């Protein structure tokens, strides 16, 4: 049997796209050294962009999205992996122009594949997924730039989203005093349970763009949204503090002034979780599985199946998603 179930996005004419679960053939997967039977994937904002026909993410359709996959090696032509190994793949071209984790099988280069760390189950690894990896990279960069618990409040924007919610939980687990920015007035309790000490309304971060500088407030920040909010975060960092910038839900463009950089010596740190070397990803996964392991990871996520994805994709595109969605691929 070579057919398998997968979500597929197709052009339905006049620039419209539709997404449904179909049967695909393993022989139609791209070439690669490792064939993986996917057990879990997860839903990220980028998957929703791909599934809605965004050509900046996926050039040609029909296409199976899913930038994350965790599962079991079914076939391998390289010595590093053997049938039965439990593995994780995130980023690179998976789910962009290579058929992704929203299908029961993926075939990928061995250079994209990481063995599941002993401290994380396949489901837990996808509870984190690209969002968790990105949140960890953001925090790692802040710490490399000198941030320590006790320095003061650390801001997380887009806090109820995938990257944001894991960033809040990780920072709090590491002993930081977390302020969570959200546009969802009804999700304060969710953020407090993740460990946020203060909830900041999104509108407060959108005001004051006309001012050259804002009150020194944040010892560090994880920004998942970009746009005017990032501009204001840069202007309200404490002297010498840093913001990790990883997302664009509020916009790709943001205004800039050299003043915060030359008057307060602040740092803007770019974070990419997709094309970084596999060894860097592996070291983050190791951290996430041991010293940074979130004790309540299973409770932080909701589980859905492939059939639930079309509605979940609409919700995440509308900025309505709270927390992480793990996708059971059975
Ligand atoms: P989610 O949709 O889960 O989270 C985004 C959150 O941003 C929303 O939940 C919402 O949180 C907030 N938000 C939504 N719309 C707006 C808006 N117009 N203005 C301000 N805030 C808004 O997405 P992900 O967590 O999956 O991804 C977050 C961002 O990070 C995306 O832009 C994604 O492309 C990027 N990303 C980048 C990676 C990298 O390698 N650099 C890797 C992974 C993601 P709330 O309601 O709480 O404010």
UniProtKB/TrEMBL annotation:
It comes from the Bacteria. Signal peptide: none annotated. The keyword Transport does not apply. Keywords: Oxidoreductase. GO terms for molecular function: acryloyl-CoA reductase (NADH) activity; acryloyl-CoA reductase (NADPH) activity. Its EC number is 1.3.1.95. Residues 15-327 form the Enoyl reductase (ER) domain. Pfam families: ADH_N (PF08240), ADH_zinc_N (PF00107). This is Acryloyl-CoA reductase. It comes from Stutzerimonas zhaodongensis.
